[in-house]
Every structure is written in structure tokens, then in C-alpha cells.
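Two proteins follow. First one:
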Amino acid sequence: MDRIDAMQAFVRVVETGSFTRAADTLQASRTRVTQLVQQLETHLRVKLLHRTTRKVNPTADGAAYYERVVRLLADLDDVETSLSTASEAPRGRLRVDVPAPFALHILVPALPAFHARYPDIRLDLGASDRKVDLIDEHVDCVVRGGELTDASLRARHVGDLLLGVYASPAYLARAGTPAHPSALEEPAHRVVGYRSSRTGSPLMTPMRRDDEELRVQGRLALSVDDGNAYLAAGIAGLGVLWLPQYMARMPVARGELVPLFEEWHLEPMPMYVAFPPSRHVSRKLRVFIDWIVELMTQHAPAIRPAR
């Protein structure tokens, strides 16, 4: 038995809850993964997994062993990576998922420079605002805005998005220009809601001016779960928007959106790169994360302490 292979197989079974899915992620047969875990249990003389027809869960001993093995495998990968020659170029496939507006406005336009620097890295890019299961979907990392609620993920704080309130000229001509955020609660006004993939409810950002603080709910004209559709709805005049400044910059310059309540302060939205806790930060992933930090420094630098 190769103990390292057996440990990797066990870790992946725990993370996916299935021998079949673990085998898929390891590009091995289900029989091979089953044999490795059985050999590991025999070697340790401990039952590591509860097996049922629907789910595989670690035993108490298995859970404790998993925590130790995850750290051991990460340390081993770090040692091997540190011994690689500095001149060796990072290479291989990297699966990444980012918010659709971030892909459209920031990441994709900058990719030629990334590929010029790292020509041997192939990016498989998902552009979505949905919640991604990094293990089951074999995704190396995600870029996400907002506070992370999944404590099982490792994350790096890469920037903060400044937010503003906007509406189209056609909307303001029809509904009037609100002088105070509370006016958005009046019957004449409508807002477009951005529906969180985590909660299913529209997000409400607190607004502050001096000692005054409020959260405007407004009357929803529409709620969407995609950032590009959200922006399009605002430009079409369906209602008032809360937008990151990078998304609003060009529509404002083209006269498609008008900023509102500029004397009010909105809490910046943190941006993170997140990845599984047991996923080794390979050199290709490390350089990608560092590049995202560079990119965010240009477009939305971190203004809050890293978490």
C-alpha cells in the first residue's frame, strides 16, 4: 500500500461523501479508491468510515484522522513545491469560477496579460453568481463578493468594492429624483433587487450619513440573481440600483446611469478568493491568486484589514 495515495483517497472520500465521486476527482477507478481506504483501515486497525447505500461519513476516529491528514498532505505538498526550481514555469489546468460582471468588466479584458506571463496555464473559467460546490464540481477556486458564510473554505481577502446608488435618466424623468434614500419607500419609486444565491432574498446595503443610518428596502420592480441582468434592468429604467463602482463607471460615462445620494456612505463589499481547506495551493493557483490581487489593486484595492 502506498500510504500517501491511501491518505489522499481517504481525504477525498470524506470531502465528497462518496467513493464514486472521490474516484472521479482522483481520476482513478472506484475499486482502486475502495481498496486504498480498506488497506488504510487495516494498517491503522481502526474503522475510518461509516458506509451506507446513500452516503459515506467518517467515524469519530475517521474525523480526527482526517483533520491530521489534511494538514500532513498540505505540508508535504508545500515541501515539494519549495524544492521546485525557481525557473520552472507554472503549468496545467486551473478551474475558476467568478461573478459574471467581474468576468465581463475586469478579469476577461486583463487575461491577455495573464497568458503572456503564464502561457502554460490553461484557465477553465465559469462566470456565474451561483453558489459553487468546489469539491463536487472540481473547481480550484472561486472569486466572490460579500462576507463568506462557508467556514469550511480557506479564503484570501483580495479587495473591497466601493458601492453607489444609481438610476437611469428615463427612470428619474418618470419617477422623479429622490432627495433622500427614504423616498425610495414611496409609491412612485421602484428598486431592482439583487437576489443572493446563499439566502434567496434581495440584498439590502446599509447607508450612512453623519449619525443617520438606514436600510432601504423599497418596492421591488424585479429581483434577479445575475449581476449583468441586474445592471441591464437598471439601464432599462426598471428601478434604482445599488452597484459596485466598477460596474457603474462606463454606464455613467455614457449617460445611461446617474449617481444618487453621493453624500451617503455605503459599506464596501469585500472580495475573496476561496478554495477548499485540503486543496494544496499549487504554484499555478498561487500565481493566479497573486494576479487577482494585482488586478484588484488596480480596480478595487483592499481598504479593510485582511481576514
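Second one, unrelated to the first:
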Amino acid sequence: MAFLPLKCRRYLDDRGVDFQEVEAEGQKALLLKNVFLPEGRFDVPAADVLILLPTSYPDSAPDMFYTLPWLKLASSTTYPRAADVAHSYLGQSWQRWSRHNNQWRPGIDGIWTMLKRIETAMEVAA
């Protein structure tokens, strides 16, 4: 099943991102497999990242993202700020990272924008 816009799929393919387009419970999502995390920042070196896509994507922004396994900060063994709520999807309990996007530009932004937001959230997690 392929539902991502072609330019989003090409972006991921060109960067060697291991991803799956999935749909469950009436919700389309992008699953990024084995994403390497900032070195020394978390209690594991890599995690899967789930991005739920709104029905009007790419005209509307994905909101939050989710990780498995649940990530804790290596320095304190606590969850990052606003990342301590569970979200059930694909039969698993994902760690919800409550990071909202109010600056999405329809026709300009795409999955590359969301990946940058996730990268930034991981870098500044506290």
C-alpha cells in the first residue's frame, strides 16, 4: 500500500530511510524503522518512529510523533518533557511525543519538514 506523495517517498528513498506506509484503525501512518538517535542522549541508540498522517496530508501537518521502545534520557533516566503518555497503534503501546506544528506551509512542506522537527525534538529533549 503506497499513499505517501511520490516526492515524500523519493525523499526517504534517496536518504536510505527504512520506512513502511501502514494503515490501521482507519489511520494512515509512516513507520520509520531503526532511527539512530543522538549519541549518548537516550537509554537506547535507536528506535522506531511513528508519524500519524492527517487525512489531508500533505496539505495539513502531522502533529505529534511516537517512538518504540519508550525513550528515557540517559542523563536522568526520566522521560523527556511531554513524552510520557501512551498511544495504542498497530497493537503496541507507543510513547507519544507531544510536539505540535503550527507553521506548516501547504504545498511547500512535506515529510522532510516532519523529519527535521523530530530530529530537533530529539536533540533538545530535556
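SUMMARY FIELD: Strands lie at 19-24, 27-36, 46-52, 65-68, 85-89, 92-97. The first strand starts at residue 19 and ends at 24.
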